[in-house]
Amino acid sequence: MHDLLTLTLADAHTKLAAKEISARELVEAHSAHSKEKDKEICAYVSRSFTEALAQADRVDEKRRFGNDLSPLAGVPVAIKDNILIKGHTATASSKILRDYIAPYDATVIKKLKERDAVFIGKTNMDEFAMGSSTENSAFFPTKNPRDISRVPGGSSGGSAAAVASDQAIYALGSDTGGSIRQPASFCGIVGLKPTYGAVSRYGVMAMASSLDQIGPLTKTVADAELVFRAIAGRDAHDATSVSSSRVHAKSPLRSLVGARIGVPKEYFAVKGMDGEVRLCVEQAIQKMERAGARIEEISLPYTSHAISAYYIIMPAEVSSNLARYDGIKYGYSTYAAGGDGVLSEVYERSRSEGFGKEVKRRIMLGTYVLSAGYYDAYYKKAQQVRTKIKEDFVKAFEKVDMIATPTSPTTAFRIGEKTKDPLEMYLADVFTVPVNLAGLPALSLPCGDAGGLPVGLQFIAPWWGEDTLFTAGKAFEQL
Amino acid sequence: MDKKTIHHIAKLSNLRVSDEELSSFAHELSSILAYVSELNTVDIAGTEATGHAGEQTNVFRGDEPSAQDLELVAALVNAAPDRDDGYVKVKAIL
User: Fold this and answer.
1) Cβ-Cβ contacts under 8 Å for A414 (sequence gap 6 or more)
2) ω before A155 within 30° of 0 (cis)?
3) How far apart are the C-alpha atoms of A110 and A117, rounded to whole Å?
4) How far apart are CA A258 and CA A261, in angstroms?
């Protein structure tokens, strides 16, 4: 049974197609393991093993009559709890949505259902995806499977921990400033943040709409590619999504041999960079050089301003997007509490009792930077700096095919270590936020350990360069 | 950021903050704003603002009513704490 737990998506598909294993066996193995393991890890907010078994049986039945099923068919997947599955709770790990039942499927879920995926549970996260450690969950913190005294990263920490502890074969997460890549890095797995517009966000709770993307957390790069191909594409319900026929760079990388890989000097000189992490990533880059890649030092001069721009733009969009949680349409409400209150009192009380501290902090910060008299000083300036950050990458990609950096300046930190000072937590996003500001695709993959904990290597490709990431990532895994 | 400003921002955000929260938010938001104010050192004169990372194109559709998924409409209305005959009911505005 243990073998079933460690299967990659690609291997599970091969064995299912060859009828060596059944989808039912896969679900049973994961269910039995998860029931014990998750007492320790706390990756899941809710699980749906009974439904998963029924779905697995349907897939096994389907396979009896034909074998042209999707690579995702019959394979158990965990879904971040800010993504809607019709009839399942979708809490975003917030008290304000504790009992909320999704009335429809997100487009990514619809696509997975069409491919006969098996949903085994919804994963814990920082409330409304606001955080880098999953400690901001209103329910409980998730533990890092490699060391349970440490955080799994965030905000998709439950998804990363579920995959890393063999409680799911792969998972979906969302990434606004690093929320797929950083937990993937902390837990020693692969995480992909696709190009802005590659994957529809319909049915995913909006956090910062100019930055949000959905992507896979997987055991291998090949698995990330399989999931990406299944979920990408134009969707009439998300005006920013783009046709998959356009989702291809003009000349994707075919091999690491001769590949021009840019290494931005600014990413190795930040304050708080762990020496061992730096060494580990430098060694990974040397390995690629020995394999035939041409390593070039590049400069992304506006990197040091990315955190500031991000922590203005993101809260501004948060303050607007989270205005919808008002105690009137759905979710936690003080409406029934009575009193002779007026509507504004329902708004204020429902939101104040329903939202956690970090969410309130960001709503207020965003409201402030958008308020009369401060708009030009903060929001507009941040948007101008965003242009500069984007231009940095445009210039860099004139010279190189791909950029390699650490995913995070440190390995997984201890639970409670950064909760006292929100700013310190924000600074941990320094290598991931520039990618979201520019809308680029990026992949985090394990490149070794530092102090016994996994280190993530980040590849950044030009817009629509997912194929380049997959080629380079798969080649790196073989080194 | 003083407590008066926090109070004003909380009001604009439709949030109520306790006295204890007032002082911690004042402290935390001030330190975040102090950090992000480093953007004032960046020379961005004449730089256009980027609001979106994607390539935006207009999405058009005909101005025609589309068929409604009545089951979904019912589910959406039923999610509200109070409703009447298919409408969401709210408290008095004033």
Assistant:
1) A149, A150, A151
2) yes
3) 10
4) 9
Q: Which residues of A are known to be catalytic?
A: 80, 155, 179
Chain B residues near residue A307 by CB distance under 8 angstroms: 35-36
Average of per-residue pLDDT across A324-350: 88
Checking ipTM against 0.90, whether it exceeds it is yes
Spell out which residues of chain A touch residue B83, defining contact as CB-CB under 8 Å.
Answer: none
Which of the pair, A85 or A374, is modelled with greater confidence? Answer: A85
Nearest-angstrom CA–CA distance, A291 and A285 = 10
Chain B neighbours among A 203-242 (CB < 8 Å)?
210-211, 236, 239-240, 242
A11 vs A395: CA distance, rounded Å: 40
Residue of A nearest to B55 (CA): A240
**CATH code for the domain in which residue A74 is found:** 3.90.1300.10
Pick the CATH number of B3-40 from 3.30.310, 1.10.20, 1.10.150, 1.10.287: 1.10.20
Residues in chain B closer than 8 A to A104 (CB atoms): 72, 75
pLDDT at A42 over 90: yes
Residues in chain B closer than 8 A to A100 (CB atoms)? 79
Strand segments (E) across A389-467 = 402-406, 442-450, 453-460
Domain count, chain A: 1
> How far, CA to CA in Å, does B61 sit from each of A202, A239, A270?
18, 12, 48
Give per-residue pLDDT as tens, B13-43.
999 999 889 999 999 999 999 999 999 999 9
Q: Kindly report, residue by residue over A133-189, the tens digit of the pLDDT.
A: 999 999 999 999 999 999 999 999 999 999 999 999 999 999 999 999 999 999 999
Angle between helices A306-321 and A381-399 (to 10 degrees): 120
Considering only the beta carbons, identify the residue of A308, A341, A390 that sits closest to B35. Answer: A308
- Answer yes or no: do B80 and A330 touch at CB < 8 A: yes
CA distance A462 to A112: 27
Out of A360, A364, A384, closest to residue B49 by CB: A384
Domain-located, residue A361: no
DSSP one-letter string for A361-398: HHHHHHHHHHSTTTIIIIIIHHHHHHHHHHHHHHHHHH
Does residue A456 lie in a domain region?
no
Pairing of strands B87-88, B83-84: antiparallel
Alpha carbon of A356: minimum distance to chain B alpha carbons (Å): 11
Is the residue at A473 inside a domain?
no
Query: What is the rounded distance in angstroms from the CA atom of residue A408 to the CA atom of residue A179?
Result: 11
Residue A99: give the domain boundaries: 2-231
Is A246 inside any structural domain? no
- For residue B85, give how far its alpha carbon lies from the nearest alpha carbon of chain A (Å): 15
Can you tell me the distance from the alpha carbon of B54 to that of A242, in angstroms, rounded to the nearest whole number?
9
Residue B14 has a pLDDT of: 96
* Strand partners for A190: A218
